[in-house]
Design a protein that fits this description.
about 325 residues; mainly beta; Pectate Lyase C-like; twelve-stranded parallel beta sheet; about 15% helix
């Protein structure tokens, strides 16, 4: 009888172990009026985050979102690590998470986010994050404070302060980011691969905020297509330093004619960028006027550009491979 009991215990352990790492898959659709009886279907994204079963310790929560415009503000808290949003439409424009808070209405920039992500290991594919407030001041489409975050085939739509890329290592692939002023800002360690960065009025693409030269943070753009609306003869800039040691690098990127020949701007007129690290290599297109770049910016050699390769820049002590993670997304 004792042998039988021990066999039963062993079998229970063997069965339970895989369940500890089990993923959870739920879906969100406007066609649902309420949560489904099995707890795997929800009418809103936030309801799914609040009520979906918790995955095992190494598991992931997959939220599949049906086509539609979801007029809600979404918060992925720290107790929802390893969450994936996937839009199930035919392209990223079919699933849109949209709100319209601006700094005045919300009580400050950092309260305006349509989506705020604090859980580590967040991933998103094939959907749009939007703040539709327009040219009304600071209005964030998404705040990302997630280490090892991946965005693939996503759109980020706004005007001022569209994407608050603020903390952790973040990887953006095959995506579209739109704005007018400082619309990619914060102090994350982020790489933007093969993406379109589109400016809609004279302003600044980036406002990176590294606070010391020892920090490993910064923004790197690989093979980006920098595009612009008709700015009616006015110019825009690749970035200005929100904090003194701002670091932004463009590698093999296309630059339009409406980019200012100096490329970069100090935070305020008459100031310098002496403590920043603003750099390019292989810029192409009518805006790639290297001899006219602002004093203090850099043109990199191949060796100097090496540390900004995606895997090296984002790898960290845990040797994270963002390229392999992104390959798993649609």
């Amino acid at each position: 009888m004792r042998i039988l009991n021990w066999l039963t215990v062993a079998a229970t352990v063997l069965i339970s172990a895989p369940l500890q790492a089990q993923d959870v898959h739920v879906h969100v659709s406007h066609e649902l009026a309420a949560a489904t009886a099995d707890g795997l279907g929800y009418p809103t994204i936030q309801m799914a985050l609040d009520h979906a079963p918790q995955p095992g310790p190494a598991g992931r929560l997959y939220i599949q979102i049906a086509p539609g415009i979801y007029h809600e503000r979404v918060f992925v808290t720290q107790n929802r690590p390893r969450t994936t949003f996937t839009g199930t439409g035919t392209d990223p424009g079919k699933v849109v998470i949209s709100a319209s808070q601006n700094a005045k209405s919300a009580g400050g920039t950092f309260f305006t986010s349509t989506v705020e992500v604090n859980g580590e290991g967040f991933e998103a594919g094939n959907l749009t994050f939007e703040n539709s407030a327009g040219n009304t001041g600071q209005a964030v489409a998404i705040t990302v404070r997630s280490d090892r975050a991946v965005f693939k085939h996503c759109r980020f739509l706004g005007d001022q302060d569209t994407l608050f890329s603020d903390f952790g290592r973040q990887y953006f692939l095959d995506s579209y980011i739109q704005g007018g002023v400082d619309f990619i800002f914060g102090n994350a360690t982020a790489v933007f691969d093969n993406s379109e960065i589109h400016i809609i009025r004279p302003g600044y693409l980036t406002a990176q905020s590294r606070v010391s030269p020892e920090q490993k943070t910064g923004y790197v753009f690989h093979h980006a297509r920098i595009t612009a609306e008709d700015l009616h003869g006015k110019l825009f800039y690749l970035g200005r330093p929100w904090r003194p040691f701002s670091r932004v690098v463009f590698l093999d990127c296309e630059m339009p004619a409406s980019l200012s020949p100096q490329g970069w701007s100090p935070w305020t007129p008459g100031a310098t960028i002496e403590n920043t690290y603003y750099a390019e290599r292989g810029s192409a297109g009518p805006g790639a006027t290297v001899p006219s770049r602002l004093a203090g910016s850099h043109q990199l050699t191949a060796a100097q550009a090496g540390p900004f390769a995606t895997k090296r820049f984002l790898g960290g002590v845990d040797h994270w491979n963002p390229v392999a993670e992104a390959a798993k997304l649609p």
